[in-house]
């Protein structure tokens, strides 16, 4: 199969998926049509030059006709990452006009006024997908539910989660057995990520285990608000704000911790959960994190808590403080669950799904086999 993937910027998780497709024999060309935004650069992301691209990758060249950016473009299945911009809508339209196969792929849309304002565009795009695309991929259950709300045919929707490269280490150090737990957050420091909730929950943990530690890694977009909250809560001695960590240093930072906590009020996926699971950490995330569905089984390898709830987050963090042995036990189970999201496994299912959609035809009623519609990518319905 020949594939063309249109995506905004080079990144360390989608590249693992691209590499897996190529290992499985798919002729895969990737076109990047954007630039690394400032907030990503602040988190340690680096811009990639043309000389650093692989032979089957390219930057979009606006001086060329849109389709001429992709070699043998008529023969490929094109992966279009949504319809939120005029560029993407134009891309879908050109593919349709030329009778070229394409699929949609997106995260869930963020809640709030932006979701309401973008509703007409999403409705229009869903009509185009239903009429002209092979089908639509969501990054997980939250995204798949969102696509249904857009109006997409539920029988055209399948799961395609983000993936990360497997760990090069067998397991993380047994920090949970002989030392107090170290909780780790990695990401932007902003309201959407729930940092205020995390800090207040950690204060409750310290009432049980005063020697516990919290590491908060990422660029502070609050102007020092969260350091101020830590001061007011009297938890500064047990809390470390590291600032931004380069991408190539995140895995080492994860291995130094006991439990990864992602307290987001909303996260379309949350790749750091995938990275932490691959490194064998216990996981805590909210029910508004896309990666929590499938990567966490509450009580088995971590806990899923209500977004915005200090009480629920504190209870989950206390569970590890009171039972340090469960840190290692849950971490090993995280490693097992992460194998369900291994790049080659996800890429193989993607190719199987596209093959099934092609066999059924674009405009037919597409009843996709149950294993391809599964809310949990690795399991059944």
How are the elements arranged and paired?
Blueprint: E1 2-7, H1 14-23, E2 27-32, H2 38-42, E3 57-59, E4 77-80, H3 86-97, E5 102-106, H4 113-117, H5 119-132, E6 135-138, H6 141-150, E7 157-159, H7 175-178, E8 182-186, H8 195-208, E9 213-217, H9 225-233, E10 239-243, H10 250-255, E11 259-262, H11 271-278, E12 282-286, H12 292-295, E13 302-305, H13 310-322, H14 325-338, H15 343-360, H16 370-373
Parallel strand pairs: 1-2, 1-4, 2-3, 4-5, 5-6, 6-7, 8-9, 8-11, 9-10, 11-12, 12-13
Helix pairs in contact: 1-15, 8-9, 8-13, 11-14
Structural features, described:
- About 45% of the residues are buried.
- This protein starts with a strand and ends in an 8-residue tail after the last helix.
- It contains 16 helices and 13 strands.
- The chain has helices spanning about 15-25, 40, 85-95, 115, 120-130, 140-150, 175-180, 195-210, 225-235, 250-255, 270-280, 290-295, 310-320, 325-340, 345-360, 370-375, and strands at about 1-5, 25-30, 55-60, 75-80, 100-105, 135-140, 155-160, 180-185, 215, 240-245, 260, 280-285, 300-305.
- Mean pLDDT is about 85; it is low at about 365-380.
- With about 375 residues, it is an alpha/beta fold.
- The protein has a 7-stranded parallel beta sheet with strand order 3-2-1-4-5-6-7, sandwiched between helices. It has a 6-stranded parallel beta sheet with strand order 10-9-8-11-12-13, with helices on both faces.
- The protein is elongated, with a radius of gyration of 21 Å.
- Helix 1 packs across helix 15 and helix 8 crosses helix 13 (about 310-320).
